[in-house]
Design goal:
Largest interface: A-B, 74 and 57 residues
Structural class of chain B: alpha/beta
CATH topology of chain B: Rossmann fold
Shape of chain A: globular
CATH topology of the largest domain in chain A: Rossmann fold
CATH architecture of chain B: 3-Layer(aba) Sandwich
Strand order of the largest sheet of chain B: 2-1-3-4-10-9-15-11
Oligomer: heterodimer
Number of helices of chain A: 20
CATH class of chain B: Alpha Beta
Strand content of chain B: 15-25%
Distance between the termini of chain B: 47 Å
Number of strands of chain B: 15
Helix content of chain B: 25-40%
CATH superfamily of the largest domain in chain A: Thiamin diphosphate (ThDP)-binding fold, Pyr/PP domains
Number of helices of chain B: 12
Helix content of chain A: 25-40%
Amino acid sequence: MSFEVQEAPLPAVSRGELINNFSLNIATINGSGSQTSNGVLLRAFFKMGIPVVGKNLFPSNIQGLPTWYIIRLSKDGYLAHRDPYEVVVCLNGRTVAEDMAKVAEGGMVLYDDSLPIAARRPDVTYYPMPVGKLVKEASVPFELKDYIANMVYVGVLTYLLGIDMQEIEDAVSWNFDGKPKPIELNMSMVRRAYEWAQANLVKSDPYRIERMTGFNEDKVLADGNTAAALGTIFGGVSFVAWYPITPASSVVDGLNKYLPKLRTDPETGRANFAVIQAEDELAAAGMIIGAGWAGARAMTATSGPGLDLMAEFAGLAYFAETPAVIWDIQRIGPSTGLPTRTSQGDISMAYYLSHGDTRHVLLFPADPAEAFEFGTTSLDLAERLQTLVIVMSDLDLGMNVWISPKYQYPEAPLDRGKVLSVEQLQELGHSWGRYKDVDGDGVGWRTLPGTRHPAAAYFTRGTGHTEMATYSERPEDWENNLLRLRRKFDTARNLVPAPVVDAPEGARFGIISYGSNDPAIVEARDLLRAQGVETAYLRLRALPINDTVRSFMRAYDRVFVVENNFDGQMQQILLSEEPVCGGQLVSVSRCNGMPLTAAWIAGQIQKGL
Amino acid sequence: MAATTEQVGRPAPAPKLNNLGLEKAAYKGAPSTLCKGCGHDTIAQRIMTVAWELGLDQTQVVKMSGIGCSSKSPAYFMGWSHAFNGVHGRMPAVATGAAVANRDLTVVGISGDGDTASIGTGQFKHAVRRNVPMVYIVENNGVYGLTKGQFSATADLGQRLKYAGLNNLPPLDICMEALAANATFVARSFAGDPRQVESLLKAAFSHRGIAVLDIISPCVTFNNHDDSTKSYSWGRQKETPLNELNFIPPYEEITVGYYEGEMEVAMHDGSRVVLKKLDPDYDPTSKLNAFQTLEEARQRQQFITGLIYINQQERPDLHELLHYTETPLVHLPSEKLRPSREALDEVLAKL
């Protein structure tokens, strides 16, 4: 792997703390079915009560390129990505030398015995696996051989690490939705490999796992995109348009999986929703704006290149004031970038998306539970504020599997915003104006097409308009409209999810971060605390910012803005929103395709103190 | 489309009021800001007349458009209807969203040749491919008006314009593109032929799925020279109707005696279109015939108009394809939009 510039193996966790506290790197070939094996391991660890997180480093390729799956077990509950790995499983001849060389000091290597092995290190324990032989003996159908071969390392690891075989079986069963045939096929290979390991390997490494309690109870294991899909469904989405793009497609996969189950009308058997695969992202954006305008709860999911294409429509939604929700599952850019690597590089673009004086409400979910919550929040805010809301997730949160608290059923009723009924129109008559700020919050009252009243109609446009929605090129009309839109944006400041602040006494330094960085920040703060540096932490959950953010920025000698992009985009936005604290706002940003690690964050902050 | 009619039977002859009890003036819009004599204004008049005659409930109609002279015109008719003037070439997407969100709406899209045949060709063809239930009108004048006279993609090969110079590219044929995308209603007309425009519009409103009307609509300022195929004089001299239409609404219980060369097409809402064949060899229910006729007309520089292709059975429309509730999605109450607490528990138990 060449994601880290690294000279020597990184130090492992200290000996004596090796139970439930190390990382595995499973190096395989893309398209060989290792996803299933890795998912089974992760689920088994989770069900044994161990805090665990998996990062899938997969190539932009259908089959053949190297792929790595990094599983971190953390008895202390740290769920961020961590660089060093103590256990490596080598199944890819093309990367085996590097994969083995980088195993942490005192680590262990499990390898397919047909692979060429580079120089052995004295500190490392090596275990061969006769993958070819075991697969041959199992006499599995030819076309399934590669898939089944990946169950060999599951079986061997089950023996070496002490995984509960029943949990493996349950995980396999979960993976195959209870279908007996593939379950038996896979489990027989797991057992065969386990038995072989039991008979042939002598355990001489210190890594093992044990069932534990206190962390995983009341938690669920899922990727953020599935959570986003579920959240959107429980948020009452009725219209979805989209165009396939990595890493956002699995949001819609989730919708397509759960919508038919959850939102088919029991009386008629018909769908209480519509999902349209558009011809491109422009069309997807246009469709959700048309649907939102007509009164549907409408959303799409995309990633950076798709969001680029939606820019013009984003401006239309902002200016014509139509509700719609975009989920941006960010991947690394510029341009096509690395389609299967994570980043938070769309922040500036999304905030100001489209030409002219445009600003959008952005939400930043930090874990799947919050992605679920923001399914409702985003649709509510879009209708309440009659505008576009962009939810800024990323590949790490969206496509990797995270442990998170059980998703909370939304208690508040759906917020459908300010929509006039026929009766209200009857009362108001022709005094109603679509863009009149009657409530002083910058948000006018709208009517939906189809409202059976002659005064209901208005002309929606992206051109200059008056309060009555008539065309206007008058300078004062233009300015008044922008002033109202600013009032509306100010209203948004206190309607959007408030930041989460942890400000312990004695903290002299502040950290501001957002989204999927959260686990790394939590861990970095512990690392800093161990070094005698107490920090306060504000986790932004939305833009625009409110006074809580402003006072946090002023309250500390130095505030570090930690983010996963190259330019420090959030730091720049915060500086422009609150320029007073300029010199104290330090950007801690990095962008290399990998999630941020606690060690790196703590190191950068130490340097900046 | 369904006219909300309470009285059944034939409306009074030469009516001042339509079956909703409304005068024609009730279907007016704002005063036009287009050039005097613009073809688009006459089309707006035709839409207004037809909507009034059919007794369309304006509050159930949405007028969708993109950017350009044509796209401004929804402001100039049916003032009780919601309208959405969106972005250039993207009317079909916005219209699709609105149509799906509320299946009770009658959707009228107004576009131009720049909007549909250049920047929006993709969206146009995909809307046709999806069979979005709507009337899709292209006000086709072969030229960009608001930007002062550049050629559009429907301009004639070899044409010269003062500002744009020589056009050395062949035109896109909107009807041909619609056919190739499997449209089930394709018509061409001429803004200077009000009777034909009106009868085609009536049929279009009764069509299931997308009805594409390519209406040659002269630009009096930039493209009305005698030698332009998009001019009034060309249209008046060269228009060759393939057929003459007589639209019979569902409430008219007359039995028509058919003459030789006439055919009837039953529309899905119970209305009928009686076609009098002016070209005896032309069958508008044959797609191959349509393709061939369009291509021959292109080669011979003929200006054929009329109902070019119609098929009421060929394909389901988007409403049917999506198999959603009869209740418009926008009218679903919260309890149909948000699944129960138990449903969430069930999902979570499996994660």
